[in-house]
Amino acid sequence: MTLAENNASSRKSQERRRRIFRLIAFPLIVALIIVLEMKEAQVYKLETCELKTSAPSESMFMKPMYGAVLRLTGLKGSPQVVSLGIDEDLQFLQTNVCPARSFTADLLKTIAAQGPALIAIDKYYTQAVCSKDDSDADTAALLSAIASVQRPVVLGASTTESNARTNTSSCLAAVPQLFTSRAGGPAIPPNVHMGLTRLNENPLKIPLTWDIFSSNSAGARLTTADSFALVAAKLMKPELNNDPKFQQLLKSPQQPYANASDLPLNTKVSDLLCAAAPGDMQTLWNLSCRKDAPKPDLSGKIVVVGAESPADKYSVLGQDVYGYQLQAGYIAALLNGAYLRDISPWVLIPLMLLYLLAQILLPYMEIHQHPIWPLWHVKHAVVWETGLFCVTMLLGFFVPLLFHRFPPVAMLLVIAAVFVPDVLFELWFVMNEEMEQEQAGKELQS
User: Fold this and answer.
1) Are 151 and 112 in contact (CB under 8 A)?
2) CB atoms within 10 A of CB 337
3) What span, in angstroms and rounded, lies between the C-alpha atoms of 208 and 196?
4) Which pLDDT belongs to residue 221?
5) Angle at 388 between CA 74 and CA 350, to 5 degrees
6) 379-384 contacts at long range (C-beta below 8 A, 24 or more positions apart)
7) pLDDT tens profile 393-433
8) Residue 28 has pLDDT above 80, yes or no
């Protein structure tokens, strides 16, 4: 057999192997992408009910990838948001509910004296805890302090599992709060606004709205409740209510991503009280103050207050943060538009089809000197294949970012997982072909 015949035979063998590889690999790509998109689009279930506005959590492998993307985008939330943490040293406030209300009243007065634009307390208050009609001194002090603030105060609202098992549109029912109007109850300050403190299963995503039943009683109506962060953002930026793009975001079943690695400035409540509260208040709450306690700048700020509670601690992007810090980050992201929405997989179908078609045609274009028009002959398919892969990855990653959409990381990883063994196979074949040609040349010379 001549050298030319050997080369022709090798090329035919190469084309056959490529076709076999692609017949296996490309259907696998499509199957994996379909599975990933179905998993991403589904809602996670709680027994027989569905939380339709919740989004599934990504795997432990994908979360670092998503975190890396969010860091790369450099999304910055509004600097107007700051957070205040009630120190873990003040643990007695966690277990003594009634004194905690008096403490919060004193804290509100101290914060209000600094001139904030809005105060948001990441905590919900239950009815009839300190007294049956909530007329006790601690509750009265809290209500009076809120009314005297003279600026919006956002408070947390909680939910419980719904008893309406026949209606699977939601598993959540609202829990009566201290600030829920009722006969015989205290007057509710007009500057109080309520928002659900419930977080998304994936803390990288901003909770926006939840479908909940108005109560757990028979005949309760289904409503859509705004989240804690959304209520605060809309109060500070009312134009969001008339923004078509933002309203479209609220209607989407997938909640947007925030850059949780860039959270607002956090200060301890004890530092604020030591620097700005009267001496008798420091004595009342047994604060051990140092002389150089920093005084945070709260003028014109959105102040998010919460407890440094181990029960409300999350590991996010390699750092431990408290729930109130995440809420502050969500508010800052909504105010600055510093979030990424999910991209529809249908938008990427043309790119995927072009990539797969080019991958299938490359072996044909390399082997045939005169392929059918409009194709052309390529000498080094592995170079073209690598270039095609790089262009596809760049387009698939950066084009969505230009439109504030989260890149389809899972889809791009699947493409990479197929490309790597394919290109290694191509390189091996090129090296093997060169060795065969060299050996055939030596045989001819001998």
Assistant:
1) yes
2) 17
3) 9
4) 83
5) 80
6) 380/430, 381/426, 382/423, 382/426, 382/427, 382/430
7) 888 888 888 888 888 887 787 778 778 877 777 777 777 77
8) no
